[in-house]
Write a structure and sequence with these properties.
The protein is an all-alpha fold. The chain is about 80% helix and about 0% strand. The chain has one domain. The protein has a two-stranded antiparallel ribbon with strand order 1-2. A hairpin with a 2-residue loop joins strand 1 and strand 2.
C-alpha cells in the first residue's frame, strides 16, 4: 500500500484533502448554501413517497412534482384554515406595551429594590431591544428578496436531486477503483440512511412537540385561567421552529411574545405562562419524544452532538445548527468505512 507520510496511507491523505476541498468550496459559495441545504432536506423528506409512486410506474421527476404539489396544497389549505392573528398595528402596540411594562418594572424596582433605584435598567433594556429592531426593519426588504430567491431555488434544485441523484451516485461509485468499490457502496448507503432517517425523524418529533405545546397551552388556559390566544398558530410555528436544535424553542417564544405584546388585552402573566409551557415542552421533547423517535437514526455520542452543534453554529449560524448533526453523522460513517477498509487491506 502506498504511503506518503510515515505510516499514513495515501488514501487517508486523499480523504482528508477531499473533505478540506468540500469545506473550502462551501465557504466560497455561501450564497448557495441555504437553497442547496433546503433542497437536500426536501428531497430526503419526500423520498419515501417518491419511491412509492415510482413503484407504481411513475417516473421519479413526475413523482416529486406530484408530492411537492400535494405538500404545497396542504400548506395552502392549512394557512386558510389556521386562525390568523391580528397583526395590524403591531409596530405601534408592541413598543407601547414594552414601555408600559418597563415603566411598571421601574416602579416596582424603586419600591422594592432601593439599592438599584438610581440604576436606569429600563433605559438600557429599551435601547437593546429597539436598536436591533430598527436595524432589522431597514434590512427587511433585501432580506425578503433573498428569502424569495431561496424559496424559488429550493424546489428547483430538489427536483434535479430527486430525478438525477441516483444516476449521479452510480457514476460516482463506478468511478471508484475496484479495491474500494464495496466500501463506497456501503458508505453511500449508510450516509443516505443516516441523513434520511434523521430528517424524517426530526419531522415527526417537531409535529409531536407542537401537539404537546398545544395541549399544555390549552391546559394552562383551562385550569389556570391564564389567557392563551392564538394557541394553534403559536404551537404550529413553535413546532416548525423546533427543527432547529436547542434554539428553536427560543425563536418560538419570541414569536409568541411578539403576538402577545401586540395585544393590549393579554396580561403579562400569560406571557410568563407561555415561557413555562415552552420550557416544559422542550423538556418533554428532550427526555421523551427525541429519544423515542431518533434513538435508531443517528448513532452519535451526546458530547459529539454538542460539539457538532457548537462548531456548526459558530461557522454557519442557524444554518449550521440545522446541518451539524447530519454532517457529523455522515463524517462518522465515512471514517468508520474508511477504517474498516484499511483494516481489511492490512489483514490481507
Amino acid at each position: 500500500m502506498k504511503r506518503i507520510i510515515g505510516d499514513i496511507p495515501a488514501r487517508i491523505i486523499g480523504i482528508a484533502i477531499a473533505i478540506a476541498a468540500i469545506v473550502l468550496l462551501v465557504l466560497t459559495v455561501q450564497v448557495l448554501i441555504i437553497p442547496i441545504v433546503g433542497a437536500i432536506f426536501l428531497a430526503y423528506l419526500l423520498e419515501p413517497n417518491v419511491v412509492t409512486l415510482q413503484r407504481k410506474g411513475m417516473r421519479r421527476g413526475n413523482a416529486f412534482i406530484v408530492m411537492l404539489g400535494a405538500c404545497l396544497g396542504l400548506l395552502f389549505l392549512s394557512l386558510i384554515l389556521l386562525p390568523g392573528a391580528d397583526t395590524s398595528g403591531l409596530n405601534k402596540r408592541i413598543p407601547d406595551r414594552i414601555r408600559s411594562d418597563l415603566a411598571k418594572f421601574d416602579g416596582w424596582k424603586r419600591n422594592n429594590l432601593k439599592i438599584l433605584a438610581n440604576i436606569d435598567i429600563t433605559h438600557s433594556i429599551e435601547v437593546r431591544l429597539f436598536e436591533p429592531a430598527a436595524k432589522f426593519a431597514t434590512e427587511l426588504p433585501s432580506l425578503a428578496a433573498t428569502i424569495t430567491v431561496d424559496i424559488l431555488l429550493i424546489p428547483l434544485i430538489a427536483f434535479f436531486l430527486v430525478r438525477d441523484g441516483r444516476s449521479l451516485r452510480r457514476k460516482l461509485v463506478n468511478a471508484v477503483p475496484n479495491a474500494y468499490f464495496e466500501m463506497a457502496v456501503s458508505m453511500f448507503y449508510r450516509v443516505d440512511q443516516q441523513i434520511g432517517g434523521y430528517l424524517r425523524g426530526r419531522l415527526i418529533e417537531c409535529a409531536l412537540s407542537g401537539l404537546v405545546q398545544l395541549a399544555l397551552m390549552a391546559g394552562t388556559q383551562k385550569l389556570l385561567h391564564l389567557q392563551q390566544p392564538n394557541m394553534l398558530l403559536i404551537s404550529t410555528v413553535s413546532g416548525i421552529l423546533n427543527f432547529i436544535p436547542y434554539v428553536g424553542p427560543i425563536f418560538g417564544g419570541i414569536f409568541g411574545t411578539i403576538l402577545y405584546f401586540g395585544s393590549e388585552s393579554v396580561p403579562t402573566a400569560s406571557i410568563w405562562a407561555l415561557y413555562a409551557v415552552i420550557a416544559i415542552t422542550h423538556l418533554i421533547d428532550n427526555l421523551v419524544i427525541a429519544p423515542a423517535v431518533l434513538s435508531n437514526n443517528v448513532d452519535l455520542h451526546p458530547l459529539s452532538v454538542v460539539l457538532a452543534l457548537v462548531i456548526g453554529g459558530e461557522v454557519f449560524g442557524v444554518l449550521g445548527l440545522l446541518i451539524a448533526i447530519p454532517v457529523a453523522a455522515s463524517i462518522k460513517v465515512i471514517a468508520q468505512e474508511a477504517y474498516a477498509n484499511y483494516q481489511a487491506q492490512v489483514s490481507r
